Amino acid sequence: xxxxxxxxxxxxxxxxxxxxxxxxxxxxxxxxxxxxxxxxxxxxxxxxxxxxxxxxxxxxxxxxxxxxxxxxxxxxxxxxxxxxxxxxxxxxxxxxxxxxxxxxxxxxxxxxxxxxxxxxxxxxxxxxxxxxxxxxxxxxxxxxxxxxxxxxxxxxxxxxxxxxxxxxxxxxxxxxxxxxxxxxxxxxxxxxxxxxxxxxxxxxxxxxxxxxxxxxxxxxxxxxxxxxxxxxxxxxxxxxxxxxxxxxxxxxxxxxxxxxxxxxxxxxxxxxxxxxxxxxxxxxxxxxxxxxxxxxxxxxxxxxxxxxxxxxxxxxxxxxxxxxxxxxxxxxxxxxxxxxxxxxxxxxxxxxxxxxxxxxxxxxxxxxxxxxxxxxxxxx
Length: 380
Hints:
This protein is of the alpha+beta class. It has 12 helices and 10 strands. It has helices at residues 8-25, 29-35, 41-48, 67-77, 83-96, 98-103, 106-117, 232-268, 280-308, 314-339, 349-356, 367-377, and strands spanning 123-126, 142-146, 149-160, 167-173, 182-188, 194-198, 210-221, 225-226, 270-271, 274-275. Helix 4 (67-77) crosses helix 8 and helix 10 packs antiparallel against helix 11. It is globular, with a radius of gyration of 21 Å.
């Protein structure tokens, strides 16, 4: 890949995002985590700073930047130390809306994508169902054509931004069972028959809006069909690449921050007459962790490079998500361990990090699915 392609423009953007995360968001961490929500106005503020439109075309209100700007955003936003809130923002900009940019018509972009980039409308992606998670081909929510409308019935669960979304990029069944009968539809949440219920008792990501959605005879115009009917599975698989890259980037950045926090603690915490970091067992542990993070970051950057150049990268993206998310979980264990009993309390961020990071190996395609994708790519 050669040298890293971060320019002066990337570094200016990095400072903007870091200041936003550390100075405007982090001070509210305890309040928003305890309240299990954060103000809707944060979407508008993020839009003002260009977070939502950084890689979208200028004619749609974006900045037209390359994907390395997204790398910067992911690496710096974790400094807010609220994985749930950050996940909601990126679910809006990198999960719900990219497919609109890729395959939406001009009217759909004007109605949904442009206000999403401005932070005026919040988007969610509706795929997971109570009976179908990573097995996307077996979703059962139906959209039946009646005249010039689709009538939608079914349910979705674990949907990020579910209760506050203004629209949902919704996966529905418009044809026979299997992957060939799935379509994507843009679903306005003010549609009659739609309800959203918050999922409250989560292990982590407390500030995230996670919901269960129900559709009962919801009638929407057929013009909201996104792309071709029954081609939705392919669109979803393509859309997953960006989502998984964001997951890998945030996993690496979060792991780096967790190790830095643990090292700072080890420098000031004494045992047996000297700081913990002076004990060989911990010095060597940190050396291992830092080396593993760097290796994971290099793999992820390689996948980013391919993705940015629009080259085939399904295997590389799957590898990056698999390695980085598993590593982030292992690092959470070690970083909590060095804090001892204090790590088991809410006094230190490592307790929250240990809860939040567990989702990374599940969301956006479980680690087991990543392994299956990789195996298939190598002819197994």
